[in-house]
Design brief:
about 45% helix; alpha/beta; about 290 residues; two-stranded parallel sheet; about 10% strand; binds fe (iii) ion; Phenylalanine Hydroxylase; 13 helices; binds 7,8-dihydrobiopterin
């Protein structure tokens, strides 16, 4: 899936594709970009992000402002859950990505977006990777889920089922919602790191919101270029972890191979719909594009 130019690590990267973060090389403008994004998102997220995320946000409050120095960040993250953040130059091959996750290493881009990209960019930068992902990695249950996902990812390569498993990552780790406090809360890193989508995912009438079902999620294609047309809602992180550990993925992949994929806006018999979306946003974007 990963769209990388080389099968081998680029010049300057180690065999496992990691590079030094080189924190000293960030400019004052880079740090300021982080501070602007951090202030904006952390003001928006109370009452929207789940408790686990908001608690985990504290691990990012380091001794100095600006882009976190991974060495300091890792001391706090390691103490919480045994995870660490390692820098990589960009997208890394799937097997490398999964091997890092299975070993509790989260790979993070070491560059930060430009000032004209505050609201949107497609490739993961340090703000998405660290602000979006690290707080959840400080939660013990979610931390175990991510490591289990890494092990499952390595196995999925042997089944030729990476595209199916990648959808699980997308609709949980990147764009998941969770039932909490009598409503819905955010935990997906792609949402919590996005100024627009952190409101859209909860408040907009356009997208469908459907109770999480492992097989349903793994049949559902996703879009990488705009807000999601469907969000899946887990009951709890314990439930997500338990389903992942208890499911035998080999027969599931075999069954999925005989089922048609679903489009992002499809609703099927058996869906536990929480809100039926109008798809107005997606239709307007399609018309405008
Ligand atoms: N590389 N740096 C980086 N970040 C990712 O999220 C990532 C990757 N390589 C592959 C990959 N993700 C996919 O395998 C997963 O999204 C399934
Ligand atoms: Fe991500």
């Amino acid at each position: 899936m990963a769209d990388h130019a080389f099968e081998h690590p680029p010049e300057g990267a180690a065999a496992d594709w990691t590079v030094p973060q080189d924190w000293a090389a960030y400019t004052a403008e880079d740090h300021e970009t982080w501070d602007i994004l951090f202030a904006r998102q952390s003001a928006l997220l109370p009452g929207r992000a789940c408790e686990a995320y908001l608690r985990g946000l504290d691990v990012l409050r380091l001794s100095k402002p600006g882009i976190p120095d991974y060495a300091e960040l890792n001391q706090r993250l390691m103490a919480a859950t045994g995870w660490q953040v390692v820098a990589v130059p960009g997208l890394v091959p799937d097997a490398v990505f999964f091997d890092h996750l299975a070993n509790r290493r989260f790979v993070a881009g070491n560059f930060i977006r430009r000032r004209d990209q505050l609201d949107y960019l497609q490739e993961p930068d340090v703000f998405h990777d660290v602000f979006g992902h690290v707080p959840m990695l400080a939660d013990p249950v979610f931390a175990d889920y991510m490591a289990a996902y890494g092990r499952g990812g390595l196995r999925s390569l042997g089944f030729g089922a990476l595209d199916k498993l990648a959808r699980l990552y997308w609709y949980t780790v990147e764009f998941g919602l969770v039932r909490e406090a009598g409503g819905l809360r955010l935990f997906g890193s792609g949402i919590v790191s996005s100024f627009g989508e952190s409101r859209f995912a909860l408040d907009d009438p356009s997208p469908n919101r459907i109770a999480f079902d492992l097989e349903r999620v793994m049949r559902t294609r996703y879009r990488i270029d705009d807000y999601q047309q469907v969000y899946f809602v887990i009951d709890s992180f314990e439930d997500l972890l338990r389903q992942t550990l208890e499911t035998d993925f080999a027969p599931l992949y075999a069954r999925l191979a005989g089922l048609p994929d679903l489009g992002p806006a499809d609703v099927i018999d058996g869906d536990a719909l929480i809100t039926r979306g109008t798809q107005a946003y997606a239709m307007e974007r399609a018309g405008a594009g």
